[in-house]
Design brief:
three-stranded antiparallel β-sheet, 17 strands, 298 residues, alpha+beta
Length: 298
Protein backbone atom coordinates (compact mmCIF):
# COMPACT_ATOMS: atom_id res chain seq x y z
CA UNK A 1 0.00 0.00 0.00
CA UNK A 2 1.64 3.23 -1.18
CA UNK A 3 -1.21 5.66 -0.50
CA UNK A 4 -4.20 5.79 1.82
CA UNK A 5 -7.25 7.22 0.10
CA UNK A 6 -10.53 8.17 1.78
CA UNK A 7 -13.84 9.73 0.83
CA UNK A 8 -14.36 13.23 2.26
CA UNK A 9 -18.04 13.25 3.09
CA UNK A 10 -18.25 17.04 3.28
CA UNK A 11 -16.52 17.85 -0.02
CA UNK A 12 -17.74 14.67 -1.76
CA UNK A 13 -14.24 14.08 -3.08
CA UNK A 14 -11.71 11.28 -2.93
CA UNK A 15 -8.61 12.49 -1.06
CA UNK A 16 -5.18 11.09 -0.20
CA UNK A 17 -4.18 11.00 3.44
CA UNK A 18 -1.01 12.76 4.48
CA UNK A 19 0.46 10.36 7.02
CA UNK A 20 2.52 11.57 9.95
CA UNK A 21 5.44 9.16 10.35
CA UNK A 22 4.59 7.36 7.10
CA UNK A 23 8.15 6.13 6.48
CA UNK A 24 8.48 4.72 10.00
CA UNK A 25 5.16 2.83 9.77
CA UNK A 26 6.20 1.26 6.47
CA UNK A 27 9.62 0.40 7.85
CA UNK A 28 8.29 -1.53 10.84
CA UNK A 29 5.26 -3.19 9.24
CA UNK A 30 6.34 -3.97 5.70
CA UNK A 31 9.35 -6.15 6.51
CA UNK A 32 9.74 -9.20 8.81
CA UNK A 33 12.49 -7.70 10.98
CA UNK A 34 10.49 -4.55 11.60
CA UNK A 35 7.39 -6.53 12.55
CA UNK A 36 9.42 -8.70 14.95
CA UNK A 37 10.92 -5.62 16.63
CA UNK A 38 7.49 -4.06 16.94
CA UNK A 39 6.02 -7.16 18.60
CA UNK A 40 8.89 -7.50 21.05
CA UNK A 41 9.77 -3.85 21.69
CA UNK A 42 7.75 -0.98 20.19
CA UNK A 43 4.24 -2.39 20.88
CA UNK A 44 4.92 -2.72 24.61
CA UNK A 45 3.10 -0.33 26.95
CA UNK A 46 6.23 1.21 28.58
CA UNK A 47 7.47 2.36 25.16
CA UNK A 48 4.21 4.19 24.43
CA UNK A 49 4.25 5.68 27.94
CA UNK A 50 7.83 6.89 27.49
CA UNK A 51 7.05 8.43 24.11
CA UNK A 52 3.97 10.07 25.61
CA UNK A 53 6.11 11.57 28.38
CA UNK A 54 8.44 13.02 25.76
CA UNK A 55 5.51 14.69 23.97
CA UNK A 56 4.39 16.23 27.27
CA UNK A 57 7.80 17.77 27.95
CA UNK A 58 8.02 21.55 27.37
CA UNK A 59 10.83 20.98 24.83
CA UNK A 60 8.31 19.27 22.53
CA UNK A 61 6.45 22.56 22.03
CA UNK A 62 8.93 23.47 19.28
CA UNK A 63 7.30 20.79 17.10
CA UNK A 64 3.90 22.49 17.13
CA UNK A 65 4.34 25.25 14.54
CA UNK A 66 6.08 23.02 11.92
CA UNK A 67 3.31 20.43 12.38
CA UNK A 68 0.58 23.07 11.90
CA UNK A 69 2.23 24.34 8.72
CA UNK A 70 2.98 20.92 7.26
CA UNK A 71 -0.57 19.61 7.68
CA UNK A 72 -2.50 22.86 7.27
CA UNK A 73 -4.30 22.69 10.62
CA UNK A 74 -7.03 25.43 10.69
CA UNK A 75 -6.06 26.88 14.06
CA UNK A 76 -8.75 29.55 13.87
CA UNK A 77 -11.19 26.74 14.77
CA UNK A 78 -9.42 25.88 18.01
CA UNK A 79 -8.81 27.41 21.41
CA UNK A 80 -5.84 27.07 23.76
CA UNK A 81 -2.80 28.62 22.06
CA UNK A 82 0.02 29.11 22.95
CA UNK A 83 0.61 25.44 23.71
CA UNK A 84 2.94 24.31 26.50
CA UNK A 85 3.92 21.02 24.82
CA UNK A 86 3.15 18.96 21.74
CA UNK A 87 0.63 16.95 23.78
CA UNK A 88 -1.02 20.18 24.88
CA UNK A 89 -1.49 21.02 21.20
CA UNK A 90 -2.49 17.45 20.35
CA UNK A 91 -5.53 17.54 22.66
CA UNK A 92 -6.61 21.04 21.61
CA UNK A 93 -10.33 21.85 21.88
CA UNK A 94 -12.65 23.25 19.25
CA UNK A 95 -14.06 26.68 19.97
CA UNK A 96 -17.67 26.59 21.19
CA UNK A 97 -20.12 26.17 18.32
CA UNK A 98 -17.56 24.87 15.79
CA UNK A 99 -18.84 21.29 15.93
CA UNK A 100 -22.55 21.15 16.82
CA UNK A 101 -24.15 17.76 17.44
CA UNK A 102 -27.36 16.49 15.85
CA UNK A 103 -30.51 17.78 17.52
CA UNK A 104 -32.98 15.22 16.12
CA UNK A 105 -33.42 12.43 18.71
CA UNK A 106 -33.28 9.66 16.10
CA UNK A 107 -29.98 10.83 14.57
CA UNK A 108 -26.87 8.99 15.76
CA UNK A 109 -24.11 11.62 16.09
CA UNK A 110 -20.49 10.94 15.09
CA UNK A 111 -18.58 10.45 18.38
CA UNK A 112 -15.20 11.37 16.89
CA UNK A 113 -13.79 13.39 14.01
CA UNK A 114 -12.24 10.59 12.02
CA UNK A 115 -12.18 8.27 9.03
CA UNK A 116 -15.11 5.85 9.30
CA UNK A 117 -15.95 2.35 8.22
CA UNK A 118 -19.59 1.40 8.82
CA UNK A 119 -21.36 -1.95 8.87
CA UNK A 120 -24.97 -2.91 9.42
CA UNK A 121 -24.26 -6.26 11.04
CA UNK A 122 -21.35 -7.64 13.08
CA UNK A 123 -21.22 -11.17 14.41
CA UNK A 124 -18.78 -13.65 15.94
CA UNK A 125 -17.42 -14.61 12.52
CA UNK A 126 -17.26 -11.08 11.08
CA UNK A 127 -14.36 -9.70 9.17
CA UNK A 128 -14.47 -6.34 7.50
CA UNK A 129 -14.95 -6.63 3.77
CA UNK A 130 -11.86 -4.46 3.60
CA UNK A 131 -8.43 -6.04 4.09
CA UNK A 132 -9.79 -8.92 6.20
CA UNK A 133 -9.64 -6.89 9.44
CA UNK A 134 -10.92 -8.89 12.40
CA UNK A 135 -13.76 -7.04 14.10
CA UNK A 136 -16.06 -9.22 16.21
CA UNK A 137 -18.13 -8.19 19.23
CA UNK A 138 -16.57 -10.94 21.34
CA UNK A 139 -13.03 -10.05 20.27
CA UNK A 140 -13.57 -6.36 20.97
CA UNK A 141 -15.40 -6.72 24.29
CA UNK A 142 -13.34 -9.59 25.66
CA UNK A 143 -16.05 -12.16 26.40
CA UNK A 144 -19.00 -13.90 24.78
CA UNK A 145 -21.33 -12.82 27.60
CA UNK A 146 -20.54 -9.13 27.25
CA UNK A 147 -20.76 -9.38 23.45
CA UNK A 148 -24.12 -11.17 23.37
CA UNK A 149 -26.36 -8.04 23.23
CA UNK A 150 -24.36 -6.76 20.24
CA UNK A 151 -24.15 -9.91 18.12
CA UNK A 152 -25.66 -9.15 14.72
CA UNK A 153 -25.90 -5.43 15.48
CA UNK A 154 -24.53 -2.34 13.68
CA UNK A 155 -21.04 -0.95 14.12
CA UNK A 156 -18.80 2.02 13.39
CA UNK A 157 -15.01 2.07 13.22
CA UNK A 158 -13.62 5.59 13.56
CA UNK A 159 -9.86 5.87 12.92
CA UNK A 160 -8.21 9.06 14.17
CA UNK A 161 -5.01 10.39 12.59
CA UNK A 162 -2.39 12.53 14.35
CA UNK A 163 -3.72 15.60 12.48
CA UNK A 164 -7.24 15.12 13.88
CA UNK A 165 -9.11 16.40 16.92
CA UNK A 166 -8.30 13.83 19.61
CA UNK A 167 -11.18 14.19 22.02
CA UNK A 168 -14.18 11.91 21.69
CA UNK A 169 -17.77 12.49 22.76
CA UNK A 170 -21.07 10.79 23.61
CA UNK A 171 -23.46 10.27 20.66
CA UNK A 172 -26.63 10.49 22.78
CA UNK A 173 -27.97 11.06 26.30
CA UNK A 174 -27.61 8.20 28.76
CA UNK A 175 -25.61 6.55 31.52
CA UNK A 176 -22.65 4.16 31.78
CA UNK A 177 -23.65 0.72 33.08
CA UNK A 178 -20.24 -1.00 32.81
CA UNK A 179 -16.64 0.04 32.14
CA UNK A 180 -13.37 -1.89 32.09
CA UNK A 181 -9.93 -2.13 30.44
CA UNK A 182 -8.70 -5.10 28.40
CA UNK A 183 -4.87 -5.30 28.47
CA UNK A 184 -3.07 -5.80 25.18
CA UNK A 185 -0.40 -4.61 22.80
CA UNK A 186 0.06 -1.15 21.29
CA UNK A 187 0.36 -1.67 17.55
CA UNK A 188 -0.28 1.10 15.04
CA UNK A 189 -3.87 1.34 13.77
CA UNK A 190 -2.68 2.80 10.46
CA UNK A 191 -4.18 0.92 7.45
CA UNK A 192 -0.64 -0.08 6.44
CA UNK A 193 -0.32 -1.99 9.73
CA UNK A 194 -3.89 -3.37 9.60
CA UNK A 195 -3.29 -4.75 6.12
CA UNK A 196 -0.32 -6.75 7.40
CA UNK A 197 -1.71 -7.73 10.83
CA UNK A 198 -5.48 -8.20 10.79
CA UNK A 199 -5.99 -8.81 14.54
CA UNK A 200 -4.69 -5.45 15.79
CA UNK A 201 -8.09 -4.04 16.78
CA UNK A 202 -8.94 -7.08 18.91
CA UNK A 203 -5.47 -7.56 20.42
CA UNK A 204 -4.42 -3.97 21.25
CA UNK A 205 -5.27 -2.62 24.69
CA UNK A 206 -8.87 -1.45 24.79
CA UNK A 207 -11.01 0.65 27.13
CA UNK A 208 -14.66 -0.47 27.00
CA UNK A 209 -17.77 1.30 28.26
CA UNK A 210 -21.26 -0.13 27.93
CA UNK A 211 -23.74 2.72 27.64
CA UNK A 212 -27.51 2.75 28.12
CA UNK A 213 -28.66 5.48 25.73
CA UNK A 214 -31.95 7.32 25.51
CA UNK A 215 -32.64 6.70 21.82
CA UNK A 216 -30.48 3.76 20.69
CA UNK A 217 -30.54 1.17 23.49
CA UNK A 218 -27.27 -0.32 24.68
CA UNK A 219 -24.12 0.91 22.93
CA UNK A 220 -20.62 -0.50 23.40
CA UNK A 221 -18.05 2.31 23.20
CA UNK A 222 -14.52 0.96 22.66
CA UNK A 223 -11.36 3.09 22.69
CA UNK A 224 -8.37 1.30 21.17
CA UNK A 225 -4.81 1.97 22.33
CA UNK A 226 -2.18 2.30 19.64
CA UNK A 227 1.54 2.67 18.98
CA UNK A 228 2.92 5.70 20.86
CA UNK A 229 -0.47 6.68 22.30
CA UNK A 230 0.74 7.98 25.64
CA UNK A 231 -2.57 7.45 27.46
CA UNK A 232 -6.31 7.09 27.05
CA UNK A 233 -7.96 9.47 29.49
CA UNK A 234 -11.59 9.48 30.63
CA UNK A 235 -12.43 13.15 31.19
CA UNK A 236 -16.06 12.44 32.15
CA UNK A 237 -16.99 10.93 35.50
CA UNK A 238 -18.62 7.67 34.42
CA UNK A 239 -20.64 7.44 37.61
CA UNK A 240 -22.63 10.41 36.33
CA UNK A 241 -25.13 10.50 33.47
CA UNK A 242 -24.07 12.11 30.20
CA UNK A 243 -25.70 14.17 27.46
CA UNK A 244 -25.40 14.13 23.70
CA UNK A 245 -22.22 15.87 22.57
CA UNK A 246 -20.62 15.85 26.02
CA UNK A 247 -16.92 15.00 26.04
CA UNK A 248 -16.15 11.43 27.12
CA UNK A 249 -12.36 11.38 26.96
CA UNK A 250 -9.23 11.94 24.92
CA UNK A 251 -6.17 10.25 23.47
CA UNK A 252 -2.78 11.73 24.28
CA UNK A 253 -0.15 11.72 21.55
CA UNK A 254 -0.62 9.13 18.81
CA UNK A 255 -3.36 8.13 16.40
CA UNK A 256 -6.03 5.78 17.62
CA UNK A 257 -9.54 4.44 17.12
CA UNK A 258 -13.05 4.57 18.55
CA UNK A 259 -15.34 1.62 17.81
CA UNK A 260 -19.10 1.69 18.40
CA UNK A 261 -21.29 -1.42 18.58
CA UNK A 262 -25.09 -1.37 18.72
CA UNK A 263 -27.92 -3.76 19.46
CA UNK A 264 -29.66 -5.42 16.49
CA UNK A 265 -32.70 -3.52 15.24
CA UNK A 266 -32.09 -0.30 17.18
CA UNK A 267 -30.24 1.83 14.64
CA UNK A 268 -28.43 1.59 11.32
CA UNK A 269 -25.42 3.49 9.87
CA UNK A 270 -26.10 5.93 7.04
CA UNK A 271 -26.27 4.41 3.56
CA UNK A 272 -23.42 6.48 2.11
CA UNK A 273 -21.02 5.27 4.82
CA UNK A 274 -22.05 1.66 4.22
CA UNK A 275 -21.55 2.09 0.46
CA UNK A 276 -18.08 3.59 0.83
CA UNK A 277 -17.13 0.73 3.16
CA UNK A 278 -18.27 -1.81 0.56
CA UNK A 279 -15.95 -0.09 -1.90
CA UNK A 280 -13.06 -0.45 0.54
CA UNK A 281 -12.86 3.22 1.48
CA UNK A 282 -13.07 5.10 4.73
CA UNK A 283 -15.24 8.22 4.90
CA UNK A 284 -13.91 11.32 6.63
CA UNK A 285 -16.66 12.58 8.93
CA UNK A 286 -16.83 15.64 11.18
CA UNK A 287 -17.67 15.03 14.81
CA UNK A 288 -21.29 15.65 15.74
CA UNK A 289 -22.73 15.10 12.25
CA UNK A 290 -25.13 12.24 11.59
CA UNK A 291 -23.61 8.82 10.96
CA UNK A 292 -26.71 6.70 11.58
CA UNK A 293 -30.40 6.77 12.36
CA UNK A 294 -32.83 5.08 14.68
CA UNK A 295 -34.70 2.24 13.03
CA UNK A 296 -38.39 2.88 12.64
CA UNK A 297 -39.36 -0.43 14.23
CA UNK A 298 -37.30 0.15 17.38
Amino acid sequence: MDQIQFWNRETQKLETERVYGDSAVKLVYQNPVGRLLTDWVFAKKPISQLYGWMQAHPMSAKKVEPFIKRFGIPMEDFEGAPFKSFNDFFVRKYKPGKRPFCTQPGDFSAPAEARYFAFDRLSRDSKLAVKGIELTPQGLLGSAKKAEPFEGGPGLLARLCPVDYHRYHYPDDGKTIDAYTIPGRFHSVNPIALEVQSDILVSNERRVAILETKNFGKVAYVEVGALFVGRIIQTHDESQSFSRGQEKGMFLFGASTVIILGEPGRWIPDADLLEQTKQGRESYVKIGTRVGRQKSNS
